[in-house]
Amino acid sequence: MHSVDAKTEQMIRSVLAYAENRLRLDPVPLDKGSRDPAQLDVAVDGLLGEDGHDPDQVLGAWAAILAPAVISADSPRFLGFIPAAPTKASLLFDMLVSCASIQGISWLEAAGPVHAENQVLRLIADRAGMPLGAGGCFVSGGSAANLSALAVAREIAKRKFASAGQGSRRLRVVVGADAHSSVGNTLRLLEMDALVVPTAEHRLTGDAVRRAIDADDDPGSLAAVVATAGTTNAGIIDDLAGLAAVARQLDLWFHVDGAYGGAGLFAPSVRGAYSGIEQADSLVLDPHKWLFAPYDCAALVYREPALARSVHRQDAGYLDVIHDQAAEWNPCDYAYHLTRRARGLPLWFSLCVHGVRAYGEAIEAAISLAKQTAAEIRSRRYLELIREPDLSVVLFRRIGWRPDDYTAWADKLLDDQVAFLPPTTWEGETVARFAFLHPHTSMELVAEILDRMADG
Ligand SMILES: Cc1ncc(COP(=O)(O)O)c(C=O)c1O
Phi and psi at residue 253, in whole multiples of 5°? Predict the structure, then answer.
């Protein structure tokens, strides 16, 4: 299994040929998504057993039945959720990272990969305007990053309370009503409670938080303020400057979840909306969403990485050696993980090959498409725009439609391989939602999708 024999040679040829063909798809088709499990069973029946099989037989089952049973997020027709639209360069380098089994745990074992990853983290920190000492690591996703960052926030608050002679207490965190679901899960896992501050415009502001805190019975239990730089459902950027000011005034940790929208830091047309982000104690940005990296890649940057290290560093006799290096920077010290792949490398390679400007242009393409789409929606009498898009998400309603109508429209779009854009809800109402990421999604496609709402 570990030597290069005839079977390995056959696999190198077949698997690389498959990968080459997949890489050359332009555009990537949407594919069909979920299938009847019985159909999938038939395809793979008997392949996984005590005895091995011919690699081409296994690859054939993969290619014929399993691989098409996805909805390909890297298709320009994928307009739902906010998943990924990786560059070809990043996909290629991801293969290299896998083939070379490159890890990114510690400086001792992986100084080169960690150095390259740190360059990308530095780029992100610079774009945000964070200080030179800022740093962190890449984790698997925004959820893992939010958990790791808020674990630090909690620990720092606990230390603060302990040094003030206050015993242990249940802590709370200020969040907007539109914060990502992973923030709620994080608070539950960390046994903290949310002080949810709803706002009419779905944009958390410093003033709203101040009012909520003034009216609160127990403001002394607050540990952090969580801001969202690009809400998932609507792409709204909270009032980061106002929230940072409240956090500073009350000595609370300021966490910015820019898992989706943080990429807008690279787009000059919207950069101004992020003012205040430079004050984040911790910042999350998912390159696997809108910085065109492959899964799974989330950047987690701390203003003072030493605080994160004091929380996340793992100690064991056999690990002493990794904490004993002259130029030590161990990504494993900055989040809840130990073993990790160097998942920032595909982004590093692609950024180096294409240049940062190309990234800004590709992000601007989605922002511009969202604006054009909003104008197109306003021009159609059977549609209603719900709000002007701030980033690349557009919410709108088809006048007169009920939830079933949206579902039927979306199902038919997928069946016909036109597009994937499942409906969402907005203030309790089922509505339609474009989430643009891929720079090749066209206005022609948008028009076709909207045309299909005309009669019905
Ligand atoms: C604002 C925000 N935060 C966190 C997440 C979770 O990120 P992940 O899916 O990478 O765990 C998302 C995902 O869409 C998001 O949009």
Answer: -65, 135
Q: State the DSSP string of 315-374.
A: --GGGGGGG--TT---GGGGSS-SS-B-TTHHHHHHHHHH-HHHHHHHHHHHHHHHHHHH
232 Cα nearest atom in ligand 1: 16
Rounded Cα distance, 159 and 142, in Å: 26
pLDDT for the residue 456:
59
Ligand 1 probe mutation, 289, 393, 433, most atoms within 8 A of CB = 289
Length of the chain: 456
Contacts of 402 (CB under 8 A, 6+ apart): 430
DSSP 113-127: HHHHHHHHHHHHHHH
Closest by alpha carbon to 30, among 425, 456, 410, 295? 410
What's residue 327's pLDDT? 72
The 8-class DSSP code of residue 134 comes to -
User: How many Å lie between the centroid of ligand 1 and the Cα of residue 142?
Assistant: 4
**What whole-number distance in Å separates Cα of residue 85 and Cα of residue 66?**
21
Ligand 1 centroid from CA 270, angstroms: 20
From 182, 285, 290, the mutation candidate for ligand 1 (largest count of ligand atoms within 8 A of CB) is 182
Q: State how far the Cα of 290 lies from the Cα of 90, in Å rounded to an integer.
A: 13
Distances (CA, A) of 54 to 50, 60, 125: 14, 10, 48
Q: Select from 99, 120, 139 the least CA-distant residue to 296.
A: 139
Which residues have C-beta atoms less than 6 Å from ligand 1? Answer: 82, 141-143, 180, 182, 228, 232, 257, 259-260, 286, 298
Sequence-distant contacts of 319-327: CB under 8 A, at least 24 apart:
321/108, 322/105, 322/106, 322/107, 322/108, 322/109, 325/106, 325/107, 325/108, 327/107, 327/111
List all residues 6 or more positions away from 408 whose beta carbon is below 8 Å from its beta carbon: 456
Q: How far is the CA of 243 from the centre of ligand 1 (A)?
A: 20
Say how far apart CA 411 and CA 153 lie, in whole Å. 43
Residues in the chain with pLDDT < 50?
none
The H or E element spanning position 112 is helix 107-128
Which tokens in the block code for residue 435?
Answer: 């989430």
Pull the structure tokens for residue 418. Answer: 């036109």
Locate the ligand 1 atom nearest the alpha carbon of residue 229 and give its number.
Answer: 1
